[in-house]
Write a structure and sequence with these properties.
The chain has 305 residues and is of the alpha/beta class. It has helices at residues 8-17, 26-29, 72-93, 126-131, 149-158, 162-167, 187-194, 204-211, 229-239, 255-266, 271-275, 280-291, and strands spanning 47-49, 59-66, 99-106, 116-118, 159-161, 171-177, 184-185, 202-203, 215-223, 244-248.
Length: 305
C-alpha cells in the first residue's frame, strides 16, 4: 500500500464515473449496507505506512470522521470535495512530506455494529475509492458522546510507519464531529472493537498521551448553531487545549482549507503564513477557527520516546 501518486486526472475520472456532485445524497455515494470485512477494526491486525520510490519520506495522515445520526453530510463533503482538495493543497504547500492518507469512519462503540472502520494508508486515488466503500451506519446512542477515542487506540496500537523508526518523526491525526467523546474505553469495548484483551479500562487522557507519542492529534468540532455548541467546544478545548478548533456547519466546504492550515501551523508556520495563498474570503472565514490552534514552542513533530 502507499504506492503511486495523486493526480488531478484520476480524481476527475473518478468524480465523473461516480457522479460525485452536490446533487447526490450521502446514501447514494456511500451505498454499502454493511462494513467491508477488511475495514472493520476488529479484523484489522495492522496498518502500515511505508517508504517506497513514490513516497521516499512517507508521512501517515489519518482523517477520522463521525458517521453517526445525521452526520452523512460530513461524509459526503469529504468524499466529494474535502479529501481531494486536502491532498492537492498538501502537495502544493508541502504541509507534510509524502502524505499517505488513511480514512476512518467513527461511530459509537456502545451501540453500533461497526463503531470503527479504517481504510489502508494510500497516496493515490485509492484513498478516495476506499473512502466511498465505507458504511455509513448512522447509529449513535443519544448518550452524550461518540467514540472518537477508538481512533486514538487504533493509531497507537495498530499502525506502523517508517517515519517513526527511520526519521523519529510523527504522523498527524484529525478527528471531526459534532459531539463529545465518551470518557474512556472499557475492557469489553476494546474487545468488541479490536478483538484485543486489555487488563483495565483506558481513559481518554491515557489514550491521548499514548497516541501523541506517534501522532500530532487534533479535533475539529462542527458547530450546529444550537445551545449545546459552547458546552461541547469547551469540553474539547479542555481535553485537547490548543489542538481543537470549531468550524461552523455552514462553512463545511472549507474543511480541507482548515485542515491544511493547521498542518502548516503544526509544521512551524505562523497563522498568517498558513492563511497566505488562500483567497481573502476563505482566509477570513477560517481565521477564527485557526486562532484556537496554539502549538507550544516546546512541541514539535519528533517522537517523544
Amino acid at each position: 500500500m502507499g504506492r503511486g501518486s495523486y493526480r488531478a486526472t484520476d480524481w476527475a475520472a473518478l468524480k465523473s464515473s461516480k457522479k460525485l456532485s452536490g446533487n447526490r445524497t450521502a446514501v447514494q455515494i456511500f451505498d454499502s449496507k454493511a462494513a467491508v470485512h477488511s475495514y472493520r477494526s476488529n479484523y484489522v491486525k495492522i496498518r502500515e505506512c511505508r517508504d517506497n520510490p513514490d513516497s521516499p519520506e512517507s508521512t501517515p495522515v489519518i482523517i477520522g470522521f463521525d458517521v453517526t445520526a445525521s452526520m452523512g453530510y460530513l461524509a459526503k463533503e469529504i468524499a466529494t470535495n474535502s479529501l481531494n482538495n486536502m491532498i492537492s493543497q498538501i502537495l502544493e504547500n508541502k504541509a507534510v512530506k509524502d502524505p499517505q492518507v488513511l480514512c476512518a469512519a467513527i461511530g459509537d462503540v456502545k451501540s453500533d455494529n461497526y463503531p470503527l472502520q479504517v481504510t489502508q494508508f494510500e497516496s493515490d486515488i485509492r484513498m478516495v475509492r476506499q473512502l466511498m466503500t465505507l458504511c455509513l451506519e448512522g447509529g449513535g446512542g443519544g448518550n452524550d458522546g461518540e467514540s472518537y477515542n477508538l481512533l486514538w487506540y487504533f493509531a497507537s496500537r495498530k499502525t506502523v510507519a517508517d517515519c517513526f523508526g527511520k526519521r523519529q518523526s510523527k504522523g498527524i491525526l484529525f478527528t471531526i464531529g459534532d459531539d463529545k467523546c465518551h470518557p474512556d474505553l472499557s475492557r469489553n469495548e476494546i474487545r468488541n472493537a479490536f478483538a484485543q484483551d486489555e487488563p483495565y479500562t483506558l481513559s481518554n487522557e491515557e489514550l491521548i498521551r499514548e497516541v501523541s507519542l506517534k501522532y500530532d492529534i487534533f479535533h475539529l468540532y462542527i458547530e450546529n448553531d444550537n445551545a449545546g455548541d459552547r458546552d461541547v467546544f469547551r469540553y474539547w478545548n479542555d481535553l485537547l487545549p490548543g489542538r481543537s478548533a470549531p468550524i461552523n456547519k455552514k462553512d463545511i466546504s472549507l474543511l480541507s482549507d482548515l485542515i491544511v492550515a493547521i498542518m502548516l501551523v503544526n509544521s512551524g508556520k505562523t497563522h498568517n503564513q498558513a492563511l497566505q495563498g488562500m483567497d481573502q474570503d476563505t482566509a477570513e472565514r477560517i481565521a477564527r477557527s485557526l486562532s484556537f490552534i496554539e502549538i507550544k514552542k516546546t512541541d514539535n513533530n519528533k517522537l517523544s520516546f
